[in-house]
Specification:
Layout: H1 9-12, H2 18-21, H3 45-79, E1 87-88, H4 90-113, H5 116-143, H6 149-152, E2 157-165, E3 170-179, H7 180-199, H8 202-219, E4 221-222, H9 225-245, H10 248-255, E5 261-265, H11 268-271, E6 278-282, H12 284-303, H13 310-333, H14 340-358, H15 361-366
Parallel strand pairs: 1-4
Antiparallel strand pairs: 2-3, 5-6
Helix pairs in contact: 3-8, 3-12, 3-13, 4-9, 4-10, 5-7, 5-8, 8-12, 9-12, 9-14, 12-13, 12-14, 13-14
């Protein structure tokens, strides 16, 4: 059921905490030259290749399925005459790098002057709640279509409302709809969250990271293509400044412990699930380009219904190319790289070049998921004096 009241709390806060996600835009940081950020043993060639492949596949999954689900989600809202609440407009996109910079520098100061154990404890509690709600929603979305009809027909549904009653009026503050499947996956997700909180195991970290990315790409929408250009362009400059111009992002990334990154062990072949030498990819490197690719998918659905999703596949291929370049540069220069430095030119350049060749630039720039409604005339028509 597509209602705004079922949005996950994690998704509602993604925009506000984008600065925290982008901490790990330092990107894939692993031990490829004998000693990584934590001084672990060097990885083997096979281990490095497996890590690169694993991170690439994990990054592609939420973008592909999140973009497809975003079409279903927004189409459903339009059929019901509703609009998505989580939309990024030009003002949001312009302020995004500034908010991210402020949050990043604030974390830097925290880690400088407060013991990082206390900072990470606070952040872990915050992200635990977000991760549990995001994982529960993602699991519900996957399980519901798989259930037989005779089971779904018997599932109990619940509707909770928080109302504030005053002498003059009764106001509904919030509303929540869920059913038995949501309740079960919520309990299971809570248990998974507690296990992660005490073990910090990389597999559980990835479950939360993938769910978080999938929900964000599905539910958050860019107002139009120009917003995506401004957002990615701003974060392109943000990445260059904070990674190459200062030690702020690297310092925070080394200290930060929360499920805001995907991890894959380089020593998996030697140590199995007990591996502890990781390559990493920040969720910001997945979600930010993923929002643009999801917009391209919805553009295809709106302008080319029933045909191949050309611009979606071009954007998806551009992401693969950009991330592959990131990995190659990182491997050659033996240093962590800001992935958006390579993803932004690819994810913006290739779709726009294809649109230029097809003559779709005007249509792409005009496209909106929710077109602006015509404004009512500010002044009513004056009566005709002759008629009087």
């Amino acid at each position: 059921e597509l209602t705004a009241s079922r949005k996950s709390g994690s998704v509602k806060l993604i925009q506000a905490m984008a600065d925290v996600e982008n901490v790990t835009n330092v990107s894939i940081a692993g031990d490829i030259n004998g000693s990584n950020l934590t001084g672990r043993d060097a990885a083997t060639t096979e281990g490095i290749a497996l890590t690169y492949s694993g991170l690439l596949l994990m990054a592609l999954a939420p973008i592909f399925f999140g973009a497809a689900r975003s079409v279903i989600y927004h189409s459903g809202l339009k059929r019901m005459g509703e609009e998505a609440g989580d939309r990024i407009d030009m003002k949001d996109a312009a302020m995004f790098p500034l908010y991210a910079s402020g949050g990043l520098f604030g974390l830097y100061l925290f880690f400088k002057f407060v013991p990082k154990e206390y900072v990470n404890l606070m952040l872990s509690v915050l992200f635990l709640g977000l991760g549990v709600s995001g994982l529960a929603r993602a699991c519900s979305a996957i399980l519901e279509p798989l259930l037989p009809a005779f089971i779904t027909a018997r599932i109990a549904k619940y509707h909770l409302q928080l109302t504030v009653t005053q002498p003059s009026e009764k106001k509904v503050e919030s509303s929540l709809e869920f059913h038995t499947v949501d309740l079960i996956v919520g309990i299971v997700s809570g248990v998974v969250g507690l296990v992660y909180f005490f073990t910090k195991h990389w597999i559980l970290n990835n479950l939360f990271g993938l769910a978080f990315s999938l929900n964000a790409i599905e539910l958050i929408s860019l107002d139009r293509f120009a917003v995506g250009c401004l957002l990615l362009g701003g974060l392109f400059i943000y990445d260059i400044f904070w990674v190459f111009g200062t030690d702020v992002m690297v310092t925070v990334a080394k200290s930060f412990e929360a499920p805001i990154k995907l991890m894959f062990p380089m020593d998996l072949l030697e140590k199995g699930f007990a591996a502890n030498n990781f390559g990493m990819l920040g969720l910001g490197d997945i979600v930010i380009p993923g929002l643009l690719i999801a917009l391209l998918c919805r553009f295809d659905h709106s302008h080319h219904p029933g045909k191949t999703r050309m611009y979606f596949y071009i954007g998806f291929a551009a992401y693969i190319i950009g991330l592959t370049i990131t990995i190659a540069v990182m491997h050659i220069f033996r240093a962590a790289q800001p992935a958006l430095l390579y993803l932004v030119p690819c994810c913006l350049g290739l779709p726009m070049f294809a649109a230029l060749l097809k003559g779709d630039i005007p249509a792409l720039l005009r496209y909106r998921d929710y077109p602006e409604k015509p404004k009512e005339e500010a002044h009513p028509e004056k009566p005709d004096k002759k008629a009087l």
